[in-house]
Amino acid sequence: MRHALLALLLAAPLAAQERPALAPSARAFVAVDAPVVALTGVRLVDGTGAPAREGHTVVVRGTRIVAVGPARTTPVPRGARVMDLAGHTLMPGLVSLHEHTYFGGLRQTVPMNAGAALYLGSGVTTAMTAGSQLPHQELSLKRMIDSGTLPGPRLLVTGPYFTGGPGRGSGGFVAVRDAADAKRLVGLWAAKGATWFKVHNGPTSVLRDVIQAAHARGLRVSAHLCSVTFSEAAALGIDALQHGFITNSEYVPGKQPDVCPPENMRAQADVDVASPAVQESIRRIVAGRAAVVSTLGVYESFVPGRPLDARALEMLAPATRREVEANHAGLAQRGFTVPERLLAKMMQWERAFVAAGGLLGAGSDPWGTGFLPGFGNLRNYELLVQAGFRPEEAIQILTLNGARILGEEARIGSIAPGKQADLVVVRGDPLAAPARIYDVTLVFRDGIGYDAVRLRDSAKGRVGVF
């Protein structure tokens, strides 16, 4: 059966697997573009959490993977472009679930079109945005990527932040008044291209109405919550909860219904993650089939004493870099910081969530603390390993789990015959040395191989520029 499937895939008409057309501006970053490509001798991490396998061959035809197996038994089609990748690790393209196309947390929020190159150049081939303060700019960026004008990840857009309460409804925040308003707004932004919707804070009525309006269209909802707890949101049918332990207000003593306690994101530092109450809350979240998106890296950037990433700083425009460095120097005196013990408890909670059967994905959440697209997604890998996940499990969280949360696991997220050829080549062994994860050399999206270094270099000095 396996050989029959391989023969069928290898013989499939290339016209049925055509790659997207690219403009010269995007083609300048292409390193590999052949009808059939064989990646040989790789260390394979397939995204399923299975142990890595040495000496494997992966064959790509058009936009699809058509063969995966040991090099000694996997035939290379005649005429294929053969790439000997001994000493390299091959893993699926990252499927990231808390991404931004604007750069916030500074005196002035600016578009971040350069982020597209940073995402793709770091191995992110699918990116779900998590609310935008510049939603029309985000839709324009998506159109440029989809048209082949700009290299970047496959963007799934959420549009503006939906919220409730007085005084909101300007900029990237849209106030939702009632169920009819939620239905109208979901319809409006779905017509513009949004496939997910982001609720910020709550209250319960807004979250409920947006979930119902989105689900009626077969669309999904994510949220950064405070006035609504994770357990309450799971009971309402939310699809993805952002950030995890640190934003779950049910752990704040004296939490009142539909009130965002000011101690949220601070009180959790003194909560016992192993306590029966916390473990029961995790069971309720899992029972409600709500996924959680880990964003450990961005919260680490609020830990006083942690260094800035020098590689990321090179991407900032000079004035933006000065502001980021000044903010970092004064972090301990700013209004919000994350103590080391809180970051450790976030890690502990995520392990407990997965152990209870929860579906954990990950995203970067770029911010003005110097936490940037691409670099932040890869930093999450290191932190998930530090949290106690096996390297292969951490890669699963970053890839196949993300695809499952999106409902796209049949198409992306792992390396298997018939799946989209979204692949990341890393020089060395990031399983033995997690810091090697940053040495991404080649990224395939839809079967086209992009020069990862060239992509990242193209963004130098551009983040923070209008």
TrEMBL record:
It comes from uncultured Gemmatimonadota bacterium. This is Amidohydrolase-related domain-containing protein. InterPro entries: Amidohydro-rel (IPR006680), Metal-dep_hydrolase_composite (IPR011059), Metal_Hydrolase (IPR032466), Metallo-dep_Hydrolase (IPR051781). One of its GO terms (molecular function) is hydrolase activity, acting on carbon-nitrogen (but not peptide) bonds. Residues 386-447 form the Amidohydrolase-related domain. It comes from the Bacteria.
